[in-house]
Amino acid sequence: MFKNSFSKFRTISFVEGISYLLLLFMAMPLKYFAGMPVFVKVVGMAHGILFVLFFVYLYFASKEHNWGMKFNIIAFVASLVPFGTFVLEKRLKEMVPVTNN
Domain span at residue 79? Predict the structure, then answer.
């Protein structure tokens, strides 16, 4: 179950970061400035699902690579801050290099 969870976590982390930015900088302004709340519902639902998946795969990757509680807390905080998952991605590249096998 844990096999290759690192690459899945990186992918989910990136997509979750994109969805967060879309929610904050596209959907929310459309809702409040253009009266179009449907985008918040759609993007918000997608972001919510990705947010949950972020933590599921964080758990699996953490178990696979024996990450400590400190890193898990940093990853959690990064998921709450706009652009935080992209900063986390840089850290992940340093921690576990990607191999093209």
Answer: 5-91
